[in-house]
Amino acid sequence: MTGARAPTNGIHRPASMTGRALLSPNEVLARALPPMSAEPSTPTPVETRLRDLRPTSSPVELVARVVTSDRREVTRRSDGSRRPVLSGLLSDGTATVRFTWWDPPREGIERGIVLRAVGAEVREFRGRAEVTFGWKTRVGPASPAELPPVDAAEVPFRTVRDLRPGDEGFRIELRVARITPKSVTVGTERRVVHEGLVADRTGSIALSSWSDFGLRAGEAVRIAGGYVRAFRGRPQIVLDESSIVVRIEGADLPEPAQLLASPPRSIAEVEDEGGGEAVAVEGLVVGLLPPSGIVFRCPTCQRTVRSGICRVHGQVEGRADLRARIVLDDGTGALTINANRADTERLWGVTLEEAEARLRSQPDPTLIEEQMLESLLGRRLRVRGAGTRDDFGVTLTPESIERVDIDLDAAAEELTLRLGGSR
Ligand SMILES: [Zn+2]
């Protein structure tokens, strides 16, 4: 049977499937896929929860939600023809697994829909189970009610410190330190994702929720049915429609003010941890990195314009902006702070308009950068924000930058007292 498609088992899209504007993804899929036949040709597969999937020679039946899907085409080595394949993640609340779907329907398989697959193959890749839908697999739409009930009491408790990308099937109790809705484009669709910062006593982690649970800063919640993924090199908890969020008392959880006002840590420590969601550091300004000073931005995409050219939009009339990429050193290490216009104006004490006026009278942008450096060099700053690490070290996107004025007399007095007390 290799290569031959059994017409009764393969998925065929009726020709009437063109006008679909008013249908929900599940309705589209319901029309795109024929109802599953009542008499399976092979022994009835056992419905398996994703958490219990093991590589096996006998096909399984599963009900799961599409979390992500990517469509591409691969070239057949035999005859050079193109074969469509859909791959992505499936979740049923007990676990998330990768799937590969050969010759999928042309449309209707979107993020969020629930599928029932009968006769899926389970393989192992890098120690994790994956499912494959081939020509023998029958896939049809299912209702979210058919997903296996997640008994939150069955899954183990975790703490933030234990979480690793790829984790799922856990419960966790968290304080919401901040949460903001953000509109994003997914494919051709606008969606709202609720992004924020959550924490327990062991640490803080970013949260990204594709479903609106009405979360508010300050609330304590118990979460089940989420998973952890890496985003820009940092782990984050992802919630969707199948996640469960319950409000709790949360007496053991840190208060938001505590979280957002954690004491500064050494830059070496922040570097070792690869940054963090709520990093606080304190150090001296030892330099500026280019581009600092007046920069010109594309009015469409805000990218920095070089010689009047945006690398996406070509020749544009750049808009002036002020920024400082500050190198902060605390004796254990250094990191870069990307200060925006408002922070730069406040720290430097020069507005964008004033800087532009200077540039007109001394048309050399490097002079502006030098004047800025002269004013900032050696200042002590306390900075809080989200830090990410790449090959060049840690970069902090600040939420707050405070100038720390050192009272030399008080510091000397304190030092004397300490030295005196230890003798
Ligand atoms: Zn642009």
Quick overview of this protein structure:
The chain has helices at 25-32, 256-260, 267-272, 341-348, 352-361, 365-376, 408-422, and strands spanning 56-75, 82-91, 96-102, 114-125, 128-133, 138-141, 171-186, 189-200, 203-209, 220-224, 227-231, 234-239, 244-247, 275-297, 309-310, 314-315, 319-329, 334-339, 380-390, 393-403.
Q: Can you offer a commentary on this structure?
A:
This protein has 423 residues and is α+β, with helices and mostly antiparallel strands. It has three domains: 23-146, OB fold (Dihydrolipoamide Acetyltransferase, E2P) (Beta Barrel), CATH 2.40.50.140; 160-255, OB fold (Dihydrolipoamide Acetyltransferase, E2P); 262-408, OB fold (Dihydrolipoamide Acetyltransferase, E2P). It has helices at 25-32, 256-260, 267-272, 341-348, 352-361, 365-376, 408-422, and strands at residues 56-75, 82-91, 96-102, 114-125, 128-133, 138-141, 171-186, 189-200, 203-209, 220-224, 227-231, 234-239, 244-247, 275-297, 309-310, 314-315, 319-329, 334-339, 380-390, 393-403. The strands form four sheets. Strands 11-12-9-8-7-10-13 form a seven-stranded mixed sheet. It has a five-stranded mixed beta barrel with strand order 1-2-3-5-4. A hairpin with a 3-residue loop joins strand 15 (309-310) and strand 16 (314-315). The chain is globular.
